[in-house]
Amino acid sequence: MTFRTTTTNRLLIVFGLLFLLMSGASFSAFKALSDMHKVLNRIVTYNRELRTTLALATAIRDQYAHEAHTIILGNTSHLGYHDEACARVIDLVMKMKAEHAGIDASERIAAIENTSKAQAAWFREQVLPAVLEGDKDRVQAGHNRILEMVGSTQIELDAVATDLASRVHDAEQEADSIAASALQWLFLSHGLALGFALAAALYLRRSIATPLEALGKGAQQLAEGNMDTRIELDTKDEFAVLAAQFNAMTRALERHQARWVRQEKLAAVGRLAAGVAHEINNPLGVMLGYVRLMKEQAGGKFREDLEVVEEEAVRTQHIVEGLLDLARPIDVSDKQVDIGSLCNEVAERVAGALADAASRIDVLGQGRVSGNEQALRQVLTNVIKNAMEASGPGGSVTVRIERGDADDLVIHIDDSGPGLSEESQGRLGEPFFTTKPRGTGLGLAVSRAILESHGGRIDAENRLGGGARFTISLPGSAPGDDDPDSRTRA
């Protein structure tokens, strides 16, 4: 169907302009975020360098503290701690040199490093021997020299820390400025976008209100249960297509609702029939017992009449059993069932049990499915038996097993009978519908229920060359080895 995309064009233009406007605002926001990210990275770097500087100052004070304890105590008990402090000072100096690569503080850091090394050497070479010898004058002079070195180092560290703190402050002010500018632009751009969006909404509201209102009313009528609701639009745009699809949907809903009602009726009938069947089965069994007992004692015409009663009672019992099968829940297991072997088994039994049926039955192919073997045997028995009875003496039946769509297993049962009438195709699987003079009309209904419980289905059609074809589809097949040769049963 060809139509003008007027509504699409309107939406594309409106949302395209809105997209451009928002893209401009977003670009500005992203640029501001990028600038902010760079400034924050500088702040993080400066703070890291500042922490290293302060840690170095603390380490130098620790070094001096252990030197002072050695002088006060007059022994070597703090030399191990002193060595650890000296090592930490050297590590922090190296870390400070690596971190301050982008800051012009190389001379100060070099002075700090040299002074720290000189302090450690002076303590080891001059002060410690004087302490151990008990020379107080030399100890005092050495201590004064260490205080000068510590003071010089602290002055350099304070200068570096002050410079870093100043850089952090400047970066924070720059970040505040970027954030304020970005917020102003975002408020302005979003205000413009909001105004444009409101204008666009009013425009679109006027241009598409009528078809939307019609669609809304149609949906409301459908929700109220009016399945024959139809929406007619004179336009040639997307709304006309949507209205046509809505009308198709309502027609499909009508069909699905009718099918659901039929299924619910069948379910209700099945539940009722199950209850009635249980009540009938017991007296029916008693009646059959008495009839068979009377047959043994009767003769002549009366015995023939009792045989007719027995035959009809057995037929009634078969109907009751069919009703129970229709209402009984199917236990679908995950057991693997060899469909090829099962078809051959059923074919042998049916061919041996039916005298006035097809004289030839061929089973072709192999396959496996997960399911209830007994229930699937019942389905195949019903369908194959019907096909052989329809073919009649001298006729033939072919059972072909093959892979279908989505790896389903498909079983085609073809017969050489007269085919299916239009009424038979439309009422396939309907309980109590049968074309046989003595049939109950429950076999295919039970078979359909079993297949649906397995996630499968059964379909029927007339073949071009004559006869009928029943097709059974079962999901999730595990195909076996194909057997190109048929297995014939008489």
Outline the structure in words.
The chain has 490 residues and is α+β, with helices and mostly antiparallel strands. Helix content is 70%, strand content 9%. The strands form two sheets. A six-stranded mixed β-sheet has the order 6-7-5-4-2-8, with helices on one face. It has a two-stranded antiparallel sheet with strand order 1-3. Strand 6 and strand 7 (468-474) form a beta hairpin. The two termini are 57 Å apart.
Notable traits:
490 residues, alpha+beta, f41 fragment of flagellin, N-terminal domain, Helix Hairpins, Heat Shock Protein 90, 6-stranded mixed β-sheet, 10 helices, 70% helix, 9% strand
Task: Put the structure in a nutshell.
It is built from ten helices and eight strands. With 490 residues, the chain is α+β, with helices and mostly antiparallel strands. The radius of gyration is 49 Å and the shape is elongated.
Largest pleated sheet: 6 strands, mixed
Intertermini distance = 57 Å
- Integer-rounded radius of gyration: 49 Å
> What's the CATH class label of the largest domain?
Mainly Alpha
Q: Which outline best applies?
A: elongated
Helicity level: over 70%
Layout: helices, strands, pairs:
Layout: H1 6-73, H2 79-99, H3 106-133, H4 136-223, H5 238-297, H6 300-327, E1 336-338, H7 339-353, E2 360-364, E3 368-370, H8 373-391, E4 396-403, E5 409-415, H9 422-426, H10 443-453, E6 457-462, E7 468-474, E8 487-489
Parallel strand pairs: 2-4
Antiparallel strand pairs: 1-3, 2-8, 4-5, 5-7, 6-7
Helix pairs in contact: 1-2, 1-3, 1-4, 2-3, 3-4, 4-5, 5-6, 6-10, 7-8, 8-10
